[in-house]
From TrEMBL:
The entry's keywords: Glycoprotein, Lipid-binding, Secreted, Signal, Steroid-binding, Transport
Function: Major transport protein for glucocorticoids and progestins in the blood of almost all vertebrate species.
Organism: Daubentonia madagascariensis (Aye-aye)
Main location: secreted
Signal sequence annotation: 1-22
Recorded family membership: Belongs to the serpin family.
Residue ranges constituting the Serpin domain according to the UniProt record: 47-403
Protein name (database record): Corticosteroid-binding globulin
Length: 404
């Protein structure tokens, strides 16, 4: 299990590169064209959200699943009306004069379908569910729409018995993520009448695995004054890498069996903010075109990182603020008393380990080397970007400051 990622998004409410890289003959033209319009918008939102989060906590680890956040917010928009809906969809990056709401939801439905196809090789489970107080009458149109476009469901629970309701939600998430996300809610959380959860479980398998026998305890330099010990994985193989001539960083690209691809980015000393500021579709496209394949001695920490982000302030800063005020219009979910979102929590866990397919007998290319291999060691703060390279969805964006 070389890389396992688990994330959950929780809502509590009170009352060229970015076109498909490989064509699947079984995927119809309509689905491909729908997806092509969605990927750039989603990735732009992903980098924007990521930069806001990094700026809000500059010394901390950051880890999010942008595509699942986009999907959850788009699904939530089906239950909104008026300015709340417009603000939410525009906040996600959509130009509503160019793209209709129906086209947006159809595109997400196709993306969800493509990601589920990817999941057969990436072992990925993702989905959404809505929990609402049993005193509210759910509109059948909303229930049908979230099922149709997002394969989601709405479940009634008794939020007057908060301890029991939180256990029900925790158990639901635990079952859906095969036990990888548990105790999502506590008895101390504020009671609610409407909760939307979004979850994704991901486990990739390296195309070129690391050798467990080579993992050693090494120093990781958090900053000038802090050094921690981490188990450092190692492989010496033919790897795509780049010493960027425009940005102060070095990077490698590793692939999973299936559609997953990962960029590990190592900024130069003191240049983390410079690199993060420059992250964009254009930068990723330039990197992809500039990577060269060669022999690399690669060191990456074997780590497990968990973090939780309350996204309310960040989304409000990005212009999605109606959800959290009395101006919120959720009459598309229920015509009962007015509700608003009071809390948004995004939780993620990252695990990096060695194994891939046939780790003991990995097939590789033998080169006649005339020079020493390039050594790249991720022994100081770095960035990690995980994409599904068929849809170019940003599955995960991370900043690792302290791997312990």
């Amino acid at each position: 299990m070389p890389l396992a990622l688990y994330t959950c998004l929780l809502w509590l409410s009170t009352s060229g590169f970015w076109t498909i890289q490989a064509e699947n003959t079984n995927t119809n033209v309509s689905m491909r064209s729908h997806h092509r319009g969605l990927a750039p918008t989603n990735v732009d939102f992903a980098f924007s959200l990521y930069k806001y989060l990094v700026a809000s906590a500059p010394e901390k680890n950051i880890f999010i699943s942008p595509v699942s956040i986009s999907m959850a917010l788009a699904m939530l928009s089906l239950g909104t009306y008026g300015h709340t809906r417009t603000q939410l969809l525009q906040g996600l990056g959509f130009n509503l004069t160019e793209t209709s709401e129906v086209e947006i939801h159809q595109s997400f439905r196709h993306l969800h379908h493509l990601l589920r196809e990817s999941a057969t090789s990436l072992e990925m489970t993702m989905g959404n569910a809505l929990f609402l107080d049993h005193s509210l009458e759910l509109l059948e149109t909303f229930s049908a729409d979230i099922k149709r476009y997002y394969d989601s469901e709405a479940l009634a629970t008794d939020f007057q018995d908060w301890a029991r309701a939180s256990r029900q939600i925790n158990e639901y998430v635990k079952n859906k993520t095969q036990g990888k996300i548990f105790n999502l809610l506590s008895d101390l959380d504020s009671p609610a009448v409407l909760i939307l959860i979004n979850y994704i479980f991901f486990k990739g398998t390296w195309a070129q695995p690391f050798d467990p026998e080579s993992t050693r305890e090494e120093n990781f330099y958090v900053n000038d004054t802090t050094v921690v010990k981490v188990p450092m994985m190692f492989q010496s193989s033919t790897i795509s890498s780049l010493r960027d001539s425009e940005l102060p960083c070095q990077l490698v690209q590793l692939n999973y069996v299936g559609n997953g691809t990962v960029f590990f980015i190592l900024p130069d000393e003191g240049e983390m903010d410079t690199v993060i500021t420059a992250l964009s579709r254009d930068t990723i496209q330039r990197w992809s075109k500039s990577l060269t394949i060669g022999q690399v001695d690669l060191y990456i920490p074997k780590v497990s990182i968990s973090g939780a982000h309350d996204l309310q302030g960040v989304l409000a800063d990005m212009g999605i603020s109606d959800l959290f005020t009395n101006q919120a219009n959720f009459s598309g979910i229920s015509q009962e008393a007015q509700v608003k979102v009071s809390k948004v929590v995004h939780k993620a866990v990252l695990q990096l380990n060695e194994r891939g397919v046939q780790a003991a007998a990995s097939a590789g290319v033998t080169l006649n080397l005339t020079s020493e291999p390039l050594t790249i060691s991720f022994n100081k703060p770095f960035l990690i970007l995980v994409f599904d390279h068929f849809t170019w969805s940003s599955l995960f964006l991370g900043k690792v400051v302290n791997p312990t």
